[in-house]
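Q: Can someone sanity-check these two? First one:
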Amino acid sequence: MVRPLHPEEYLFDFLLDNGSISLSFWRVLWEKPLLFRNDLFVDFHYQQLLEEYLHGKIITPRAGGTSSVQQIAELAALQHLAQGLKDQPSLPEVKQYLPPQDGLASKAQEIQSFCHNQVDAMQSLSPKDAKIRFIEFLRNLPLFGSNTFLVQKVSQRGCPSPCLVCLNKEGVLFLHPKTQEHVFNIALEKIQSMRTIRPKKDGKLPAVEIHFGNAGNPQNILLHLKEAKELCHMLALTIEELT
């Protein structure tokens, strides 16, 4: 189980001598500005965003047209330069720089070609500058700062299954996993309560039940996903920090 620590909780209540608990530091809310004054600050944020990007946790433009392919190639080039590498990346290297997005594998050679051009154009960048540009690129994406989950089943009519669910200061956003079209949303101030539900049978996914609306029109929605507890805790933390 993964969940964030809350402000009132004491760190050493969770760290055990047997090593069964691991601790990671990462930014959950991105309200305060980024100031790239030292290497540690840059490395901290770069490593967090790099991991989220490569695991599909950051919503990037779909690789449909030339423009989106060029953007993916630029991010690949920046990852290459961030390691202090100045040579042209091979095709296997380029594939390691790509997020798990539908359609990217078939465009790997096209991305590599654009990536080579980008590496040539950015030879003067230091590894630190490449990391900063990578962070700035992602920060300008429309859904930057969202905590994203792939939900296998949603009870709300009109929502596809599976569905992308993004938690941010705007609320709970439901997106089509392929087109990224917004299909439904719940404002944070409309959420009344939430809870996790254990699966009734082995092999089934746990769920998060969210009650929202008002007394005159109460509503609820069920989200079935592996990271149910993490989503529930993350949503609770987001509400706590922004309300």
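And here is the second, same format, sequence then tokens:
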Amino acid sequence: MTSIILAIVIGAAFGAVLDRIGATNPNWIGKMLSLKNLHLMKTILLAIGTGSILMFAGQMIGLVDVGHMSVKTAYVGVFIGGLLLGAGWAASGFCPGTGVCAAASGRKDGLFFIAGGLLGAAAYMVTYPAWKASGMLDAIAGGAVTLGTVPGSKYEGITGMSGDILGIILGLAFVVVAFVLPERPMGGGAEPVPAE
């Protein structure tokens, strides 16, 4: 029960931060994807970079249990699904997390987005046997692998590099890019108006 309460508290805090930075406003998403205002992209890169640095440094010094690391299996369907997610994100202005947060903040378009996502998930479940038979769900590149080898994890690395060091380097690169990117590279114009 404690873990459920903790998940609700952390999820609510995360949702509040997403709403505060504008991630629940499709106008902000559209401006980011059209490269007119990169405020949101800079925030995302900074968060991913900081999280990567903290996680991999924590693993190196023993503060983070490597057993908690989860790597998803690579297969062709994942890449196609990623492209579909990106297209849906661009068309709707929401990704799954921001759509739920938008609905929680009272946006009706967020509710329609959730309904569409549930309908899509149901369609996938119904057609799953066909996708499985197509071979698109067969593991590629060794299945669940990492770029570098992380000591104590059950995943193989595809390079001889230390996964922890590589994770920290990539995290630092994301942080640097977040600070170097211009806020409005394509002349963003007026700021989007928040939802009422």
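A (reply): Looked at the second one. The radius of gyration is 19 Å. Strands lie at 145-146, 156-157.
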